[in-house]
Structures are given as structure tokens and as C-alpha cells.
């Protein structure tokens, strides 16, 4: 459900307004990057993913049928925690299962099980045995895979790519200071494919697959991001 304005416990001093941005932002809830829809305080440059702005107290996930994940505004306990979906550190909002100690970033917990635009369909798996299009490794994090099983992309690899490309931005806070917009992912994909000549022809498909995964990973698979990232891929 979308509200045009909300009050949030993490930012009680101002209301947060629903916004749509083509610029990446750093979510002040989960501390991960986001794009597209957000709840924002423009006075303080404070942003939250939709999933972080309106969390559920408890969620269940089809990959962990015995788990019940509770929402925490800070990672529980003293130990450093990492997300079971993307393998990145958990430093802010998190869904945590007390029984198993599993953790999921709010956006990772809400990753769509199927990404489908009518032409390309990708399914989310907890683990796949084939190698990832980006890193070439098996296993590792959750993976999006095409029905033909040829294209496999780790959620972790997509996040790594974004973080590498957006390092300058991730260090700072304000998206306004970040003027290169969406970075080029094409080069990353191409570089990878040059090394593996077999996969050369696949890059176009991989590029398309990538844009879906990117927008999903950023917390908003439903927006025009696919278009934005699509144009950046073709212009690069
Ligand atoms: Zn967030
Ligand atoms: Zn504020
Ligand atoms: Zn559990
Ligand atoms: Zn995660
Ligand atoms: Zn990978």
C-alpha cells in the first residue's frame, strides 16, 4: 500500500513524502542503495525504501519454511551479521530469525520470486549449481535464473557491481552530489564476456536480464528503472 505521506519511527521529527527518483539513494533504514520509489524527508535528505518505510513486524519466506523473521531496526546482538540473500553486511533494518540466526535485508526479503516483463522471465533460487554469469562461481548467494537455465546471476554479484560503480556515491549521502547518474553496467558485462568467448552472444540477453535484477535488488522492480538502465546499457 502506498501513502503520499507517512510518519516513521526512525525519523520522528518530520513526515516522509512518497517520491520517485531516477537517482540512486542510500536508504537510511537498511543502509543499502535504492532507486525509484522511496519515502523521503527533503529537509534532512533522509530516504527509506518502501520496504523499509512500511515493514511488517513478522514475515515468512518460502526459502526458509521453518523460519519466522522478525523486523529489527538494528541488527540484534553484538556479532557482525550478514544477509543470507545477498551476503552483504547488515548494518541497519533487518528481518531476523531468532531460531536460526538467519538475516535478510528488507529489500532482499521482498525480492520477487519471478521477474517477468512478458519477454524475459527470471526465477529466484536459493542456490543453483551452475556458474554465475558475472563471477563464474557456483553456489554463493541467491540467484536469478532464466527458464533455459543458461543465465544465472547472483543477487550478491549484482549488488557488488552496483557498489563498485557507485562507490563515490555510497560514501557520501546526497544523491544530488552524484551527477553521473546510473553507471555503465555494459562494460562490466562485456568485460566478463570477452574472457569467456562462449558467452559473447549472450551479452545482450544478459544485459536485459541484468536490468531486471538490478531494479529488483534496488527495492523497486515495478518502476521505469528498467528503461533508465536499459538506455544506459545501450548508450554506454
Ligand atoms: Zn532500505
Ligand atoms: Zn527530516
Ligand atoms: Zn529460522
Ligand atoms: Zn541482502
Ligand atoms: Zn556471481
UniProtKB/TrEMBL annotation:
Name the lineage.
Eukaryota, Viridiplantae, Streptophyta, Embryophyta, Tracheophyta
- Please tell me the species this chain comes from: Salix udensis
**Matching SUPFAM superfamilies:** Cysteine-rich domain
The UniProt keywords, alphabetically, are: Metal-binding, Repeat, Zinc, Zinc-finger
| InterPro entries associated with the record | C1-like_sf, DC1, PKC_DAG/PE, Znf_ZZ_sf
Q: What name appears for this protein in its UniProt entry? A: Phorbol-ester/DAG-type domain-containing protein
A Pfam entry, by short name? C1_2
Q: Where is the Phorbol-ester/DAG-type domain?
A: 13-67
Keyword Zinc attached: yes
The question of whether Metal-binding is a record keyword is answered with yes
- Give the molecular function GO annotations: zinc ion binding
